Amino acid sequence: MATREETVTEELNAVTAGGVGLRHIADLTAKEVEGITSVQPAEEGWLVNVEIVEDRRIPSSGDILAIYQAQIDEEGRLLSYRRLRRYKRANADSGEAL
């Protein structure tokens, strides 16, 4: 699946960087996005962590979630992305990964 090349004309701040990072991760994974979990400035742009539903289960406490990280530059271009963690929704705060 090809991702759209997204650039922004104004200087990125935490809010706009988060939105850009979320869209890149959503495009790359083609999965349902739960939300942004963190945005932090990096040496050459921003690091954006996004929570994704990787596998929907019934009941929802069995859903498999994952945290992905996007590194974007100052213009909003995706430099890299990776999955940081995968876990069941019921274990989200326990630190227990799959």
From TrEMBL:
<dbReference type="Pfam" id="PF05800">
    <property type="entry name" value="GvpO"/>
</dbReference>
<dbReference type="InterPro" id="IPR008634">
    <property type="entry name" value="Gas-vesicle_GvpO"/>
</dbReference>
<protein>
    <recommendedName>
        <fullName>Gas vesicle protein</fullName>
    </recommendedName>
</protein>
<dbReference type="GO" id="GO:0031412">
    <property type="term" value="P:gas vesicle organization"/>
</dbReference>
